[in-house]
Amino acid sequence: MQTLNQRYAQEVFKLIEKVAENDKLKKDFLPLVRKLPSRITHNGLLTTLAFLYSKATFNKETQKPTDAPAVVLSALVSFLKDGEVKTETTKDKVQSFIKSLTETNFLKLMLYSQKALTFSQWLKRLAEGTFKEGDDAE
Predict the structure, then answer these.
(1) The model's pTM
(2) In a domain, 138, yes or no
(3) How many CA atoms lie within 13 A of 14 on its CB side?
(4) Residue 45 lies in a domain
């Protein structure tokens, strides 16, 4: 049996390990996730997802994420939807989930918002610890 915090940390570590394998993602990842909790708090979950979606780039053929905003969006959507991080969530699945949030009731949206906020706080802290400023400065 695990606590919710253990589950969040476990899933965030999976994401950070995947990002660490790609130098281009590492460079853009930290500045993006540092602002994620405040974006969710100040703008709301739907607006934050829309922002990430507007910045995200997906492969035209496979529809898989190719940049940091797309990877963060993909991971966040898969975590909210399935309870686990999948960085390969396709553009269609992301669109479908965002659309479903626009049609859900207020209480469910609040629950998703709280989960997203907790996930993003874990993501910010663990990313800051893993990808310190200047680690990749050469």
Answers:
(1) 0.88
(2) no
(3) 17
(4) yes
At 50-99, the pLDDT tens digits run 999 999 999 999 998 889 999 999 999 999 988 878 777 889 999 999 99
Q: How many structural domains are present in the chain? A: 1
Going by the DSSP 8-state scheme, the letter that residue 63 receives in this structure is -
Residue 120 lies in a domain: yes
* Distance in angstroms (rounded) separating the CA atoms of residues 15 and 108: 25
**By residue range, what is the domain housing residue 54?**
4-130
Q: What angle do CA 136, 17, 77 make, to 5 degrees?
A: 115
What pLDDT is recorded for position 58?
92
- Which CATH number do you get for residue 80? 1.10.520.30
Query: Do 92 and 63 touch, CB atoms closer than 8 A?
Result: yes
Structure-model confidence comparison of residues 53 and 14, the more confident one: 53
Give the whole-angstrom CA distance, residue 91 versus residue 63. 5
Per-residue CA distances from 3 to 11, 48, 76, 130 (Å): 13, 27, 19, 23
